[in-house]
Specification:
single chain; 156 residues; alpha+beta; Arc Repressor Mutant, subunit A; two-stranded antiparallel ribbon; 6 helices; 6 strands; 38% helix; globular
Length: 156
Amino acid sequence: MDRLSNVPGRPCAAAAALDVVGDRWALLIVRELLFGNHRFTEIARNTGAPRDRLAARLRDLVEAGVVEKRQYQTSPERFDYHLTRSGADLAPVLQALLAWGDRWAVDDPPMQLRHHDHDLVLRPICTTCGERVRRDEVTRVGRRPDWDEAGPVSVR
């Protein structure tokens, strides 16, 4: 599903992604599902989201294919929530936000990510060549002739 038509301004996959998961509750829902909390009550308790807003956001994430709803009881009908493949692919996004938050948003980080017996430190690695990616080595290649880095070409 191409969401570029839903977002104003520069055509950008980041803007389209934010159209899906760009609010607080969406990413906190994904966090809880990654932690293994699948029931609505668990998600509500651990996110602090108002129940009506949480229900609406879960519906949006199901519709977007980020989360799937699974029935676990028939009488009465009860459902829980699980990440789809696209939802699970948000794990590194949350890890990066957590690392940024540890450094810039809190004085005493309330959680630590561990990898085996040590702290997890994220570094982007190019899967094609295996090198560590440095920001000054990344270039952008526009694929839309009506936009360049400065903005829309037709405006100038």
